[in-house]
Here is the input.
Amino acid sequence: MIASIRNYVAYLFVALLPWQTAWIVREVFVDGEKVHYSTLLLPVSLVVLIVLVVLSGSLLVAWWRFYSHKKITAIFLLVLILSIVFAQDQVGALYHAAVIGIGFLGAVILLRMELSWQRVIAVFVLSMCGHAFLALYQFITQSSFASTWLGMALHDAAVGGVSVVESSSGRWLRGYGGFTHPNILGGVIAAVCVLSMSMYLFYAHHRAVAIFYLVSAVLCAAALATSFSRSGIIALAVGIGILGVFAEGIKFFSVRRLLFIGGACGLMMSIIFYFYSDLLRTRIDPTRRLEARSIDERTQYIAESVTLLRDKPLLGVGVKNYVDAVRSKEGDTRPIWGYQPVHSVPLLIAVEIGFLGIVAISAALLVFVRYLCVSVKSRKEMVFAAPLVAIVVQSLFDHWQWSSVFGLLLTFFLGVILLMGVKASDSA
Here is the structure.
C-alpha cells in the first residue's frame, strides 16, 4: 500500500517540478523595494518531495546502511553548517541548505524506487510542453497573464525590468513560459529538447512514441527560439553534440534519424529567426543598448564576486547570502534591483561556500563520475548525460541552477534521469 502511494507521489513530483507554483515563506523589503534574491519560496513540487521523503523512511535507512561515501557527505554537511553559522542571513542559509539536503534525499529515493524510467521521462517532457505552449502564446500575442495556480507573473513589454528585445520595431516580449525569466525557460527547454531527441532515437521503431518525442522536440525548439536565450541555444548545441558522439550504439540507430530530428528542430528555429531576423540581430549585437548593459552588468558581477571571494576564501559568505554580502560591502549605493548574484554558478558557489565547499562538491562529483565509469556498459547510455550537460553548460552563464529551489531540484532530477538511463537502457 505504502509503495503504491509512494509511486504516485513520485510521478506527481515529476509532473509538478517544472511549475513555479509556490507559497511565499519570507519576503524582504528595503525602502519599499523587494529583495528578490532574499525571498524564500516553498514550491508545491518541494512539498510533494518532502512527502515522498517522509514516506520513504525505510528505503533511506536501508540505503544509508550500505552507503559507502559517508565521509564525503559528512564533510559537505559540515561545510553547510559552518556556512549557516557564519552567514549574515542565517534563516536564508538554513533554508537553502535544507533544500539541497531534501533534493539529494529525493534523488536517492527516486533511484531506489521501482519506477518506469520511460514513464518518468514522458511525464516530465509532457509537463514541460505546457511551458513551450505558454512561451509561444506570449511571444506571438505579445502578452501574458498572471496565474497564482501556475506560479506565473504578468509580463508587460512596456514596463521596465521586463525581459524584452529592443529593435527598430519596438520592444518585443521574450518568451517566459511559466518561469521568472526567459533565460530559465531557455536552459530548461534546451535540456528537454535534447532529452526528447534522445528518446526519439531510442524509440524510433515505436511509431506512436517516436511521434510524441518528435513533436515535443520541435515544440521545445520553437519555444527556445522565442526566449532568444543565447545561453540556452549554446546549451542545446552542446547537448546535440553529446548525442552525436554517443548515440551510435542505440539499437535501430541511424545517422538519418538523428539528422531528421535535428533538422526538424533547426528548421523550426530558423523559420522563427527568419521572420524575426531584426530581433535576432539585436540579440547577437553586443553594441545594442540592452545587450551592452547586460554585458556591463555581468562584468560588474564578476568583479564583485572576485572581491567577495578574496575577503572570505575559506568558508564563503554563506549559502543564499551573496546579495546580502554585496549590499553590506557597498552600503546600498544603488537601487535594490541592481543587486544580483554573479551570473556563473561555479563562481557563485565559490563565493557562498568557499574553498572548503568547492573541495567537498568536487569530491562528490568525482564519486558520481567514478560510478558512471563503472556502471556504463556501452556508449549509448551516455546520451542521457546530454540534458544534464546542457544545464551545466548554461550554468556557466547564469545563476538560477544554484540560487533557486527549482534549479537545485532540476539539477538533481537530471542526474537521476542519467543514472536511470544507464541502469535501464539495455532493455530499450
